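Hi F.,

I've been meaning to write this up properly since the lab meeting, where we talked about keeping a consistent format for the predictions we share between groups. The idea is simple: the sequence comes first, exactly as it goes in, then the structure tokens exactly as they come out, then a line or two of notes. No screenshots and no reformatting. I'm using this chain as the first example so we have something concrete to point to.
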Amino acid sequence: MTTNTSSFANTNRSGNLVAPNGQVSSNSNENNNNSNNEEDQLNRINLQTLQNRDPYISKIVDQAQRVCVYKFVAEKREW
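Output, unedited:
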């Protein structure tokens, strides 16, 4: 198995909100849904960026804060 890494920009995914009165509160379900949508969009952008360098990359199997890890499947000749 060959494993390669590629850097990508990190986004701030803070789970806290500051109310007008200065109190800090946790996100509501609506904000969590927005965060999930933003994360899905970021994942699609990261995959597209990787595919621009290598069109045989089919998916991102795991990622960290500053690195995406993907593996090459020799039989299928794809990442």
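Notes:
The longest helix spans residues 29-53.
The chain has one domain: 1-8+32-79.

If this format works for you, I'll send the rest the same way.

G.
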